[in-house]
Write a structure and sequence with these properties.
Strand order of the largest sheet: 1-4-5
Helix content: 25-40%
Number of strands: 6
Largest sheet: 3 strands, mixed
Shape: flat
Oligomer: single chain
Length: 107
């Protein structure tokens, strides 16, 4: 039991140290405006995934807001409410699932 407890504490300390180093790196790079800025702006087309009958899905470009611009941070962890660029770039092109709820009438 002591080995498990020591392993869990060690893993938590390693994660906390990694986050602290990552956070310090972002803060230092953001204070000095150079080409190594930790923030990047990514623009993409918003695509809606609209469910239809027979388990089919129709994909449409969002007519009200066709483009979205998102800021990401070049870091291992999220910082300042911005997702890491490595995560965002892999997931930003996913269609936005739309949920169509049936309308019920109130008597």
């Amino acid at each position: 039991m002591a080995i498990v407890k020591g392993t869990v504490i060690s893993a938590a300390l390693v994660c906390a140290l990694a986050y602290a180093v990552d956070s310090i790196s972002v803060r230092v790079r953001s204070r000095h405006p150079t080409a190594t800025s930790p923030y990047e702006t990514v623009t993409t087309t918003r695509v809606l995934a609209i469910p239809e009958k027979n388990n089919k899905v129709e994909y449409q470009i969002d007519a009200q807001n066709p483009e979205q611009t998102v800021t990401c941070v070049h870091a291992l962890f999220p910082h300042d409410a911005h997702a890491p660029c490595w995560y965002l770039k892999g997931n930003i092109d996913r269609p936005i699932p739309m949920l169509i709820l049936p309308i019920t009438q109130l008597d």
